[in-house]
Amino acid sequence: MAENTDLQEPEKGEQKKKKAGDKQGMSLPVVIVLILAVVVVQAILFILIYKFILVPNAAEENGEVKTEQVSEDDPMGEMTDMNDVDSQEQEFLAGEEDRDFYETERITTNPMNSTKYVVMKLSFEYRAHPSLIENLPKDDKADDKVKKDGPYMTKIIAKTKSIVINEIGSMTETEIQSDRDRLIDNIQTKLKELFWKKKIFLREVNITEFIVQ
Predict the structure, then answer these.
(1) pLDDT tens-digit readout, 194-205
(2) CA–CA distance, 33 with 42 (Å, rounded to integer)
(3) Which member of 13, 37, 151, 160 has the greatest number of CB atoms within 10 A?
């Protein structure tokens, strides 16, 4: 009986050591999981704070400036395609009622690689889109029409002059003299696109003065 007792005691000691070792081995992974969980939670909190608190606050701070720029430059946004309105509405815009006219001052610039000048004067027959008239500020509206000397039209005319100058500057004097129709067609096409984007339908674009000197 004594021999059996001696044999059992070492077995119990080994079992205790194994259990203690098991407990010590499990503690490290648990700690790592807890650390990772804390990091993930903090990251999620940071993302939520940034998305729902910091970004909206920044947008509110800049909102007034952006709104003023859109309202001042383009009250209704731009039409990017002349097919944005159907044929019936285009016919209405091209009608005789509420038509308006505008004549530019002389536009003077040089052809490509030339010391000579091209002097051009344009006149427009146009009609503004009804939605534009409704949303124009007071400084840009006169008697249900776009005010010719208002900020809105002034910016369009400035771009008109830029188009004319660029088109003349892209052709040589010889090309302009021999193919004036191409120059005029290019200018008319680009001006119709410009005015259309600003919700104004150009019925006609006429060259009232054209001098090369």
Answers:
(1) 998 998 988 889
(2) 14
(3) 160
Q: Closest Cα to residue 201, out of 104, 102, 99, 105?
A: 99
How many Å apart are CA 146 and CA 152, to the nearest integer? 8
The predicted model scores a pTM of 0.60
138's tokens: 């007071």
Domain range for 184 is 82-212
Cβ neighbors of 54 (< 8 A, separation 6 or more) are none
Residue at token pair 């302009």? 176
Q: How many CB atoms lie within 10 A of CB 150?
A: 16
Report which of 183, 156, 175 is spatially closest to residue 112, judged by C-alpha positions.
Answer: 175
**Same-domain status, 59 and 91:** no
Backbone angles phi, psi at 175, to 5 degrees: -65, -40
Token representation of residue 66: 């952006």
Q: Please give the tally of structural domains in the chain.
A: 2
**Cα R_g (the chain), whole angstroms:** 38
Give the other-Cβ count within 10 Å of 85's Cβ: 18
Residue 207, domain CATH: 3.30.479.30
Closest C-alpha to 192, from 174, 212, 206, 176: 206
